[in-house]
Specification:
The complex is a heterodimer of chains A (457) and B (1026).
Chain A: H1 18-30, H2 35-61, H3 76-100, H4 107-130, H5 157-190, H6 194-204, H7 211-244, H8 256-282, H9 291-322, H10 325-336, H11 340-352, H12 360-363, H13 366-393, H14 408-431, H15 437-443
Chain B: H1 2-9, H2 11-14, H3 26-29, H4 33-39, H5 61-78, E1 103-109, E2 118-124, E3 127-133, H6 146-155, E4 165-168, E5 171-174, H7 177-189, E6 195-200, H8 206-218, E7 222-226, H9 233-243, E8 249-251, E9 258-262, H10 273-280, E10 294-299, H11 304-307, E11 311-314, H12 320-335, H13 345-351, H14 356-368, E12 373-377, H15 383-395, E13 402-406, H16 416-427, E14 431-437, H17 441-444, H18 451-455, E15 460-465, E16 477-480, E17 489-491, E18 497-501, H19 514-522, H20 533-550, H21 556-566, E19 568-570, E20 598-604, H22 617-621, E21 629-630, E22 635-637, H23 639-645, E23 651-657, E24 660-668, E25 676-681, E26 713-725, E27 729-730, H24 745-748, E28 754-756, H25 757-762, E29 789-794, H26 803-811, H27 819-823, E30 832-839, E31 844-851, H28 860-864, E32 870-872, E33 878-880, H29 890-893, E34 901-902, H30 907-910, E35 937-938, H31 944-956, H32 969-973, E36 979-983, H33 990-995, E37 1000-1001, E38 1013-1016, E39 1018-1020
The chains are: A mainly alpha (457), B alpha/beta (1026).
Amino acid sequence: MDLDYTRELEVVEGNLRIPEIDRIIARPMDERPGKKYLLALTISTSALLIGALCVGITLFLGIGTWGNNQPVGWAFDITNFVFWIGIGHAGTLISAILFLLRQKWRTGIARFAEAMTIFAVMCAGLFPIIHMGRPWLAGYLTPYPNQHGLWVNFVSPLVWDVFAVSTYFTISLLFWYVGLIPDFAILRDRTVSKIKKTIYSVFSLGWRHSNRHWQHYEKAYIILAGISTPLVLSVHSIVSFDFATSIIPGWHTTIFPPYFVAGAIFSGFAMVVTVMVIVRKVFDMEQIITLNHLDRMNKILLATGMMVGYAYAAEFFMSWYSGVQYERFAFFNRAFGPYAWAYWIMVSCNVFIPQLFWFRKIRRSIPIMFVIVILVNVGMWFERFVIIVTSLHRDFLPSSWGYFKPTLIDLGILLGSFGLFFTLVLLFARTLPVVSMSEVKAVSPNGQPSHNGVHHG
Amino acid sequence: MTDIKEGLNNPENSGLKTQPTYWKSLKQLYNDPEFTEASHHEFKEGVTDDFEVSKLSGLSRRKFLALIGASAALAGAGCSNYRDKGSIIPYNKKPEEIIPGNANYYASFVNSCKCGCGVLIKTREGRPIKVDGNPDHPVSKGKICVKCHASILSLYDPERLSEPVKKSGKNFQKISWNIADSEIRNVFSSIGDKEIAVITHSITSPTTLKVLKNFTNRYPSTKIYSYELFNDELRNSAWRKCYGSGTFPLINWDKAKIILSLEGDFLGTEGNHLENSQLFVKGRDINNPGNFSRLYVVEGNMSLAGMNADYRLRLRPDAQFEFVMSLINEISKKTGYSQIGNYLLPSFAQKYSLSKEVLEHLINDLIDSRGTSIVYAGDTLPEKVHIAVNYLNEILGNKNLYRNEVNVFLYPLSTTNDFKNLISSINDGRVGAVIHFDSNPVYHLPYDLGYSNALKKVETVISLVELENESSVAGKYTLPINHSFECWGDAKTRTGFYLMQQPVISPIHNTRQKEAVFLTWIENEGFEYKENLYHEYLISNWRENIYPTLNAGLPFEQFWLGALHDGVVSINENVATIGSFNTAVLSELNLTTDVSGFAVILKESCTIGDGRFANNGWLQELPHPVTKVTWDNYAAISQTTAKELGVDYNDFIEIEIAGRKVKIPVFIQPGAADKTITIELGYGRTHTGTVGKDVGFNANTLLSSTFNLSPYLYTSAKVTKAGGSFEIVTSQEHHSFDDELIKDAAEKRGIVKEGTIQEYLNNRQFLNEGKEHSLLTMYPDHPYTGLKWGMAIDLNKCISCGQCVVACTSENNIPVVGKDQVKRGREMHWIRVDRYYSGSIDEPMVSNQVMLCQHCDNAPCENVCPVVATTHSPDGLNQMVYNRCVGTRYCSNNCPYKVRRFNYYNFRDHFDDAYQLDNLFNLVYNPEVTVRSRGVMEKCTFCIQRIMESRETAIKENSELKGSDVKTACQEACPTSAIIFGDINDKESEISKYRNHELGYHVLEELNVRPNVTYLAKLRNTKEKA
């Protein structure tokens, strides 16, 4: 293919007409779900139910049903938490930062990515609560005035987490919803069902596509994007403080905040690609979510993957350079100790395999890309596992060293979190426009004034 | 309402003419008379009827309030609090000595403990809750063994037998004591000349002995058999062969400069190990570094003594005889005694590849310290080794280290022949009844005697036991007896004193004291049992027989109460002096053993003894002092042997000695001699409570009545890999000795710091050399005005016995979590004894370290807790607020010492079907310490309840609280006083001296967490620089 850099690539392919775009995007909501959809929903809800059962067992019997022990106080629980928070970051990056940077290609994927952010944060938010020994006292983590004169410990990163995650969730939800308002109005105008009309009317907040509405909307949207932007960096930085501010070798590292953010974007994009590849196929949106989108996302994956790889190397260098024997041991133990298998899964999936994205063909090959992003998801999960478990299992005193082995309940809850995520994603795909109709129309060739309906580009 | 509205509606009334006219209804608008009439009344007709005071119900205000109060109370009582599992009723009539909230202590002793430790039992409101040592006890001096500590748990064992039972068919049926007594009495009366065999453990009580004698008088066909699975009969018989009479005397360990222990665990399980260790550490006083003793240990398996040795040689136990003889010859050569046989040390050393250097040091030391050295041979060694050792001590002139005190045996232990005769009598039908007098011969006696089969032929088998056991289930009657703490008694275990026992609680179940049961049987039919039967008997025995011999100079009543109060009656007793050595015995000194095969040593369990304590969860969960194994026994073998057998940790091997077999998993013990297998007995119980049943493997099957060397040592065992494996769990991982990454980690990290005496004497500051500048912090320091609590642990004195762990368990209500949870690394002990090996796996050096919460000044756990559940007190304690804890476990993750413990379950209901939730079991809890529930973090509190108690006392007495007023449970329990606790700010205190000692260091000092536990570096008394 000869490349012409003088011309922007078209964001929406196939010279779709405006109503055609509406029709394509709204189709999943208009039609009855097919067998494939129902099968997918069955699988994901089954996973969700298994997870719910395992959470129920945990709440009934205690954390003892997990594999956690002394010294590994955190294992799958916080691994899952950090993993899901990380997944969310791609959504915010795409919708907020790319919006501010006027990356038009984001429109095709922003809505979905934002939805994934919200669902991922919901999955993530579950873990800090269920990982507590006494989850019914979770309220103690919020600073509310009480007659006991008790207050939270603002020095503890876990309290920062509470604020970071709840802020993140709130802002993401608002941002998502504000973006949805014009689309709700379009849906309201299109639908013939009375019930749907009522619902869409309520959520569209009386949107009439008026110029004033658009003016306010654009302002609100850009302000929310502005608020969201620092969150992309801050939330995972704060999550990383859980580890960075501790004294455990392998955790006590200043590189953690940027490393975690890069890792979060890396894993988030991997998850977005994973889901997008399926969605564009299932809902026939290849023209809106184009191969160019995927290509660009794969480039980001390549870049962030190398950032993560750099962080791995830097950690090793610093542990050697510091001369602190505990640090040296911790990293040596990661690579060659009892959890070496986890470490090498992490390095292979996150650093080596994404190197394939240097090749344009691979970046644009759906099956290969799909396998790679799945492996990146696996690798990023293991990254958190490696950080948390291998640092804890052998710390200062050899007498207290131990080994963590997950139980079925651990695995069940992990499965359940994926079940929750995909159930929400599937329900979302049928109930709300998975691509922003108004934004796509704005960037589609026919969205711009043109002579004789001929597109100039 | 109406009238106001009306007022507004009427412009005349309101005076507001401009006011528009409002109307509420058409009736009002048209001024309907009915409405007008109604509007004149404030309330609608009938509405106020009930408010007529006279018509009100007769309920007065007081009555109303009373009823409200009562119904609130009823609702409160009806909707009972789920935490409230009972009611608290104040004393109707308060016993004089009980002040609620204050503990009472009673002196007593524990029956089943061999050491005869004197105990003080702490009771609260009449409920015994903890066992401490009796400081007046002349031997143990306020210290007790782990079994005594844990015996309080056995008192509340929910599975203790509560009623007499009789076998009918295959099951046992409850019967009443009266019926049991009369049935049994009938059997005895009609027994004729058939034997009544009474089988008991060793008899330590003179009054019990008298009861048995009375019983024998009443039923003349009675014979008494006494046995002890672990005894030092061989040592004593060797002694008699050497010196004519008496028993092996006690040793002045403190006066010994050089100690050579051969296969002898004198600090762990043998003899008066509590006293031994107290005396031993007198030679480990850092304030007197020139006076350190040197301990050589030559042994086949790593023992407690071996861990504490300055020099340790590994040698299979069946070569010990040759070793002693070679040693004798080598020393004789240098000191002018004649040679015995052709045992030569150099060739011996060659054969067993013993370090020539160490042997040279040993020979020189023994010769140089003649008169102040001691050679000690372990219980497991053959008689001939003991004879040789006696001779060696003789030629080294070490006899003056023998003390003028001996252990006393009131009744001789029965010999193997006695039991053989008993069994053949049974087989011939000449035995009418067998009484198991608190004993378990089916489990303990060598199986080749065939006791258990013979027992089936006895018509009447009566077992007097606390818990069901292997012997009681084989019998007809099982009669439940009192626990030690429900018993009266006396004991004489060694010269110089009597021990007194008094009950501290009335029998919890329908049990009787075993002596009282015998006294009932002595009486004729119709005799009514009274609870004070044995009490009175004991008093009268003392009044008539013992008291007159004591010249107490006090009226008996006064003497008696004083004796009970003290728990000890000291007497003057002369011990026959040691005679001269019978050199004729030297001609016996030849013993050839086949050292080509496997040697098997059977040892007493460090925790559960000979199996009597198998149902005690505290002891089962106490990690083995050396291997840190909990809940199991195993075959300890060396790595080389394991490789030869093709087995690894946990793999089954089968051991066969002349047809006697056991299948048992392997544990690779660093420092074990090759081709030597060490197994601890007491496990594999098939009939006991839930806790002890089927725990470990019954290696009693290897015991033989016809042994060549000793009952505990067998040679030429056949060992094969048996296939399959069994998971043995330890509280501490075993690490590879070859992995450069983790080899000697504890030393490299400076967790254990050690040196040699020489190093220390040359440079007292050797430990602090090269120490970096003091660490800085950006936060202001806590001021700590007033008291500041701190602890010091002297690693020179700590022998790692684990008493502190059990004492802490008892004091702080620490749950038993069970094997499955220890496997998952969730044991709850607040204090642990860490063991580190260094060097090679064959010749390891062992370092031990007691680890508990360090109560850091800059505690890393405190700042990470999101809910401030762990805080710092003004007196330097790191505190845990259970009620606030939500269980994030962040504190534990951030603790560099990993001393925090998380309640992963409600362990009290997790372990074996709520065993620990039993109402009876709950009585063991210390009421001063919160019982923690699921999801809460916990850790050592420095026994804050004791600090608070002392503070209250100080306030009451209007005095200053001093650091020395408080003793933590671990400190109190430590037999060697290695733990020191007190006020660091008090510059005069012992603790502050230790804290500022040049050997003092903090673990992980470089993290600047500023711990408040100071460790005193261990000094090894080796010759060269270590």
